[in-house]
UniProtKB/TrEMBL annotation:
Residues 1-96, 97-193 form the Lumazine-binding domain. It comes from the Bacteria. Lumazine-binding repeats lie at residues 1-96, 97-193. Keywords: Repeat, Riboflavin biosynthesis, Transferase. InterPro entries: ATP_synth_asu-like_sf, Lumazine-bd, Lumazine-bd_dom, Riboflavin_synthase-like_b-brl. This is Riboflavin synthase. Pathway: Cofactor biosynthesis; riboflavin biosynthesis; riboflavin from 2-hydroxy-3-oxobutyl phosphate and 5-amino-6-(D-ribitylamino)uracil: step 2/2. It is an enzyme of class 2 (transferase). Its EC number is 2.5.1.9. SUPFAM superfamilies: Riboflavin synthase domain-like. Catalyzes the dismutation of two molecules of 6,7-dimethyl-8-ribityllumazine, resulting in the formation of riboflavin and 5-amino-6-(D-ribitylamino)uracil. It catalyses: 2 6,7-dimethyl-8-(1-D-ribityl)lumazine + H(+) = 5-amino-6-(D-ribitylamino)uracil + riboflavin.
């Protein structure tokens, strides 16, 4: 489990095509300080498993399902990435509960600069729009953000100087893809309410 508070702005140093998957090598001296084989590190909001770690870099395999569902397929050597280690049990939840399980991708639509911040509009897949609400939480490329406005096909967020300077969102331009993860609590509530609407004893076999 993650919090959406980015620890380090890392960099892709190599991409190896393995046919139905890819192996990424990423530089992140901070997140690799205590990384071991089998540990998890979120890369642009995608929970990946460390294969090897040495000299401030780590490798991770990205399966076809992840390449299809996320924007990691667009990464190239030199791409900057948001990195976060899992939250330690008992640690502060600075953002919100983030699983690292990307629900889909959006696209940066526009950037509107203010005096000390920027308002960024992001496209929203129709299947995810019901989970994104004004003043609710959403994860964009692994960054926990508060929704300013929510429409059927897009939403906006305000980015403070720290977010602009220390994450990839300060560099993303209109047309660039981003990973989206909606609030998992909303999905669980929807699921539970759907089952409440079915009389007891009449649930589908798979739901029992």
């Amino acid at each position: 489990m993650f919090t959406g508070i980015i620890e380090e702005l890392g960099e892709v140093t190599a991409v190896e095509d393995l046919g139905d998957s890819r192996r990424l090598r990423l530089r992140g001296p901070l997140v690799t300080q205590d990384a071991r084989h089998g540990d998890s590190i979120a890369v642009n909001g995608v929970c990946l498993t460390v294969v090897e770690s040495a000299d401030g870099e780590f490798t991770a395999d990205v399966m076809a399902e992840t390449l299809h569902r996320s924007a990691l397929a667009a990464l190239l050597p030199g791409s900057r990435v948001n990195l976060e280690r899992p939250m330690a049990l008992g640690g502060r939840l600075g953002g919100h509960l983030v699983q690292g399980h990307v629900d889909g991708t959006g696209t940066i639509l526009s950037r509107t600069p203010g005096e000390h911040w920027e308002v960024v509009a992001v496209s929203l897949p129709p299947a995810l729009s019901r989970y994104v609400v004004e003043k609710g939480s959403v994860t964009v490329d692994g960054v926990s953000l508060t929704v300013v406005d929510a429409a059927a096909d897009h939403f906006t967020v305000s980015l403070i100087p720290t977010t602009l300077a220390l994450t990839t969102l300060g560099r993303k331009q209109p047309g660039d893809p981003v990973n989206l993860e909606v609030d998992v609590v909303a999905k669980y509530v929807e699921r539970m309410l759907a089952h409440r609407a079915v009389p007891a004893g009449q649930e589908p076999e798979a739901a029992r």
